[in-house]
């Protein structure tokens, strides 16, 4: 079964999303420069049990690239509005990389909508992040990025990436992930959205948005953490630290995998996700659930 691509206008902006299957809703959120297509390898194994909703976040894929707010909170609100328009009240939210940060923000802002939380090589859990993403925050990147993403330079970049892989200078796969992502920035709108998105969460020193001070709140929310053992974009140490800080969470490490564990072994990923949902009762939180936990 394949994801069916659809479009919807949300607050006047076109949002593309992919959907398949029937059953409890899995909300799948992709990473920066990526799109809902990243979930294609796991659809067949999941669509028989779940309704899959996988949006292209604003500024990504085929969704609109408006001039506006690309913070984690804005993305979380946009996802909530899409779900409301589709008639889905409660979901298990699965977020990869940037999508993990959005997923955590979604659970924090809208606890009444979130049954479970699944973080896949997630951002927002530590300072370290790949140099190329930090470079996008340097002043002047606005002028350099159009040159780096031109067709000729993208071809050269592919050759450089191949040479790096042959020289074992980077874990296999992750250089390709970054190269493919940068190659997707083929319009002024997508480049602007990318820069605003990255600068909302990263600076030259690394990730500047962190959920670490709120991870203890996840004690009431079933949480699964999935990471690639050889992730060179966001190090696996972030996953181990988050697991320690989130009471009752489960950590699954994909041996030999890089930043895309759901691509490295899609059958195992789908099986782990299915088993997690089957064996954890959904949380039933209220909109003001966090208030008592935040009181002095």
From TrEMBL:
Which SUPFAM superfamilies does the annotation name?
Answer: alpha/beta-Hydrolases
Q: Name one GO molecular function term.
A: hydrolase activity
Per UniProt, residues of the AB hydrolase-1 domain are 24-122
- What Pfam families has UniProt attached to this entry? Abhydrolase_1
- Which keywords belong to this entry? Hydrolase
Q: Which Gene3D superfamilies match?
A: alpha/beta hydrolase
Q: Which InterPro entries match?
A: AB_hydrolase_1, AB_hydrolase_fold, AB_hydrolase_sf
Q: Per its UniProt record, what PANTHER family does this chain match?
A: HYDROLASE, PUTATIVE (AFU_ORTHOLOGUE AFUA_2G14860)-RELATED, MONOACYLGLYCEROL LIPASE
Mind telling me what this protein is named? Alpha/beta hydrolase
Lineage of source species: Bacteria, Bacillati, Actinomycetota, Thermoleophilia, Solirubrobacterales
């Amino acid at each position: 079964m394949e994801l069916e691509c659809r479009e919807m206008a949300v607050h006047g902006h076109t949002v593309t999303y992919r959907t398949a299957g029937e059953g409890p809703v899995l909300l799948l959120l992709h990473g920066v420069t990526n799109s809902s297509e990243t979930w294609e390898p796991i659809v067949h194994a999941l669509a028989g049990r779940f309704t899959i909703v996988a949006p292209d976040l604003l500024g990504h894929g085929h969704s609109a690239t408006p001039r506006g707010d690309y913070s984690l909170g804005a993305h979380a609100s946009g996802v909530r509005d899409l779900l409301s328009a589709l008639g889905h009240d409660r979901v298990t939210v699965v977020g990869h990389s940037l999508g993990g940060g959005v997923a955590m923000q979604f659970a924090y802002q809208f606890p009444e909508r979130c049954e479970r939380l699944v973080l896949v090589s997630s951002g927002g859990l530590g300072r370290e992040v790949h140099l190329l993403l930090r470079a996008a925050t340097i002043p002047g990147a606005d002028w350099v990025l159009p040159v780096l993403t031109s067709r000729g330079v993208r071809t050269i970049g592919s050759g450089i990436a191949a040479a790096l892989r042959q020289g074992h200078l980077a874990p296999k796969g992750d250089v390709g992930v970054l190269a493919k992502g940068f190659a997707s920035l083929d319009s002024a709108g997508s480049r602007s959205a990318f820069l605003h998105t990255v600068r909302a969460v990263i600076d030259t020193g690394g990730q500047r948005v962190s959920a670490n001070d709120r991870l203890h709140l996840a004690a009431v929310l079933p949480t699964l953490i999935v990471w690639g053992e050889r992730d060179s974009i966001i190090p696996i140490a972030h996953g181990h630290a988050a697991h320690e800080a989130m009471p009752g969470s489960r950590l699954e490490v994909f041996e030999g995998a890089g930043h895309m564990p759901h691509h490295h072994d899609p059958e195992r990923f789908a099986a782990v996700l299915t088993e997690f949902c089957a064996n954890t009762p959904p949380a039933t939180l209220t909109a003001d659930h966090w208030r008592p936990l935040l009181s002095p």
